[in-house]
Amino acid sequence: MAEATYTVEGMTCGHCATSVREEVSELDGVRQVDVDVESGRVTVTSDAPLTADAVAAAVTEAGYRLVA
User: How far apart are CA 59 and CA 57, in angstroms?
Assistant: First the structure.
């Protein structure tokens, strides 16, 4: 198992969190996605480490931006 925390810019509500959670959850091997709207933190638990590019693409698909 691997766990990584990312910062997402632009989330302001529960709907935002749900959108990000749904998109990131679709990545192969993802087991759990926890989103904290206030801090912008997204913690992803997966079978193996994910690439930042894959997570960034999922966040972009949800309409937000991954902060480097």
Answer: 5
Residue among 60, 49, 68, 61 at smallest CA distance from 7: 68
Q: Which of 65, 66, 63, 64 is nearest to 4 (CA)?
A: 66
Residue type, 52: A
Instruction: Please indicate, yes or no, if residue 11 is contained in any of the structural domains.
Output: yes
Amino acid occupying residue 22: E
Per-residue model confidence as pLDDT tens digits over 32-44: 999 999 999 999 9
Cα-Cα-Cα-Cα torsion 58, 20, 33, 53, nearest 10 degrees, comes to 20
The pair of structure tokens assigned to 27 is: 């990545």
Confidence at residue 40, expressed as pLDDT on a 0 to 100 scale: 97
| Sign (positive or negative) of CA dihedral 21, 62, 58, 42 | negative
> Range of 27's domain?
2-39+49-66
